[in-house]
Amino acid sequence: MISPWAHYGAWQPLSIEQAAALFAMLDAPWWIAGGCAIDLFVGRQTRDHGDTDVLLLRRDQLAAQRALAGWDLHAADPPGLLRPWREDEWLSPSIHDIWCRPTPTSPWALQLMLIENDGDRWLFRRDPSIGGPLSQLTRRSPAGIPYLAPEVQLLYKGRTPRPKDEADFAVALPLLEPASSAWLAQALAIHVPDSPWLARLR
């Protein structure tokens, strides 16, 4: 099936290190996310990545916009519509992703992803009964790069796993700590009770 986003142009994703450098001075929490987060957890690149994702709290979206001043930024308005993200525009909860490129003629380089929070608790947007303390989200690479905890990233991948999501689950599963496996199993039992991943986690 052709993605509804395919006609918006090619991607040439930043490396993890390049993405981290962009946000190094941001006065707000951020995390490398997606398949790159799984790579950081495993300690090596496990597959090719079509994009590079950075996760932020929705409350910090304008700080991220300022960190990318001069870039060409577009909000992904479902279904399948990209539109310019205007300066100082507050994106509503219906918008979760922002595509970013250095100039309007450059390939897309980075995707920002927004997550909800309630005080010091993060919320899973597909089911707000699932969440946890903000501290749960953060792991750090040996170089100090923050990345999304693998159990949380795999929850986002677990609803309708694509081949790349299955690959990420397979490579991360043997390295998950017991508490992380238990948390993911509990969250999937709520969100995707028929997930085939549950038997492998248990």
Provide the descriptors you would attach to this structure in a database record.
Beta Polymerase, domain 2, two-stranded antiparallel ribbon, 7 helices, globular, 202 residues, alpha+beta, 30% helix, 8-stranded mixed β-sheet
Give an account of the 3D structure:
This protein is of the alpha+beta class and 202 residues long. Helices cover 30% and strands 22% of the residues. It has a single domain (6-150), classed as Beta Polymerase, domain 2. Strands 1, 2, 3, 4, 5, 6, 7 and 8 form an eight-stranded mixed β-sheet that branches. Strands 9-10 form a two-stranded antiparallel ribbon. Helix 2 (34-42) packs parallel to helix 5 (163-172). The two termini are 33 Å apart. The mean pLDDT is 95.
Describe the structure concisely.
The chain has helices at residues 16-23, 34-42, 61-67, 150-157, 163-172, 178-191, 197-201; strands spanning 30-33, 53-57, 72-77, 81-84, 97-101, 110-118, 121-123, 131-133, 138-140, 146-148.
